Amino acid sequence: MPVGDLGPEEVVTTTPDASLDEVTDTLESEGVGAVVVTEGDSPVGVVTDRDIALEVGTTDRLANQSVETVMTEDPVTIREDEPAMEISRTIEEHNVRRVPIVDDNDELAGIATLDDLVATVGEQLDNVSETIESQSPDYQP
User: Fold this and answer.
1) N or C: which end of the chain has fewer CB within 10 A?
2) Which fold has domain 3-135?
3) Are 8 and 111 in contact, with CB atoms under 8 Å apart?
4) pLDDT the model gives residue 139
5) Secondary-structure breakdown of the chain: helix, strand, coil percentages, each rounded to the nearest 5
6) Total-model pTM
7) b/e for 94-104, b at 16 or more Cβ within 10 A?
8) What sign does the dihedral 42-110-76-81 (CA atoms) show?
9) Listing from the earlier edge strand, what are the strands of the sheet with 72-73?
10) Mean pLDDT in each 10-residue stretch from start to end of the chain (141 residues)?
11) What confidence score (pLDDT) does residue 134 get?
């Protein structure tokens, strides 16, 4: 299974000049913990609810700041045709929870999260368990 099949294709995005007030509204209304910052169709950053929370104590005018001031620039990305388990290496190597998925033109094609990885591993383990049970009728978990 390729990485492109892991996460949702519909990714919540914003622009670098959007205000943090707008982004916090988006995080709440979309029920997500991160927004991918794009220029054109390419990811240039990621801003998370944690990024915003950590910024709260540093300024009085947080709501009017642009996303650019708190986003992680040049986010780690992964190609949509990479094997799904490659997301595990990427998450570990870069210590991130969310990885934008890009196509061959480096345009945003989706997003894969640590939760997607856990769900995929769980599905694979279920498949293995079913195979073991079908091939070993006396097997008792």
Assistant:
1) C
2) CBS-domain (3.10.580)
3) yes
4) 64
5) 45, 25, 35
6) 0.79
7) eebebbbbbee
8) negative
9) 13-14, 34-39, 42-48, 72-73
10) 74 93 93 94 94 77 82 93 87 92 93 77 67 72 61
11) 75
The span from the CA of 42 to the CA of 24, in Å, is 21
Give the pair of three-digit tokens for residue 57.
């104590």
Task: Find residue 47's DSSP bridge partners.
Answer: 35
What integer pLDDT is reported at residue 141 of this predicted model?
Answer: 61
91 burial type by CB count under 10 A (0-12 exposed, 13-18 middle, 19+ buried): buried
Collapse the DSSP code of 103 into the 3-class scheme (helix H, G, I; strand E, B; otherwise coil) and give the result: coil
- Looking at this protein, which amino acid is placed at residue 88? S
Cα gap 45→76, rounded to integer Å:
9
Residues 101 and 4 sit within 8 Å (Cβ to Cβ): yes
- The residue ranges of every structural domain in the chain are 3-135
